[in-house]
Design a protein that fits this description.
Radius of gyration: 18 Å
Number of strands: 10
Distance between the termini: 23 Å
Structural class: mainly beta
C-alpha cells in the first residue's frame, strides 16, 4: 500500500479522535510530547500517531516539526499501551509512463509526483514501536530511530 493511500485515512482518524474529545468531560486524557530523530538527525517534517492496543479505542497524533511533536492534553490520549507510527512521506518523481494518449491535453499530469515513505516500514506500516501513556506522569517519549 502506498503512503498516500494510508496517510490520508490516518490523518482523518487523528482528526476525528481529536474532535471526539471536545464537549463532554469523558475519561481523563494526557498530553504527550517528545522528539524524533532518524540516524541522529531531527526529523524536520512528518507525522506521529499513537493507536491504543487492546479494547480501548483511543488514538491521537501530531505533526513533527523541527524534530519535535506535542499532543496537548485537550486532544490527549487515554492512559494505556499504544503502537506508535512515525511517517515521513516525500514526493518523488512521477512513475514513468509511456507516451501521452492522443486525446490527453499537453502537459496534463506533468506535475504529478508519487508520494513514498522515507522511513523503514518498522516505524510505520509495520511498526515495532510501542509506548505506555501513564496517568499523572510527564509522558515525554523521545525516539532516536536507526
Amino acid at each position: 500500500m502506498s503512503v498516500a493511500r494510508w496517510w490520508r485515512p490516518l490523518a482523518l482518524v487523528v482528526a476525528v479522535v481529536a474532535l471526539a474529545g471536545c464537549g463532554s468531560p469523558g475519561p481523563k486524557r494526557y498530553g504527550v510530547k517528545g522528539t524524533v530523530a532518524y540516524k541522529g538527525k531531527p526529523i524536520e517534517a512528518g507525522l506521529i500517531s499513537f493507536v491504543q492496543t487492546g479494547t480501548e479505542a483511543s488514538a491521537g497524533g501530531a505533526a513533527i516539526v523541527g524534530g519535535k511533536y506535542e499532543i496537548p492534553t485537550s486532544a490527549g490520549l487515554l492512559a494505556g499501551e499504544y503502537q506508535v507510527i512515525i511517517s515521513v512521506p516525500t514526493a518523488g518523481p512521477p512513475p514513468k509512463r509511456g507516451a501521452p494518449a492522443a486525446d490527453q491535453p499537453p502537459g496534463e499530469g506533468a506535475g504529478e509526483k508519487e508520494t513514498r515513505e522515507t522511513l523503514p516500514a518498522k516505524y510505520n506500516a509495520k511498526t515495532e514501536l510501542k509506548r505506555e501513556v501513564k496517568a499523572g506522569e510527564d509522558n515525554e517519549f523521545n525516539f532516536d530511530l536507526k
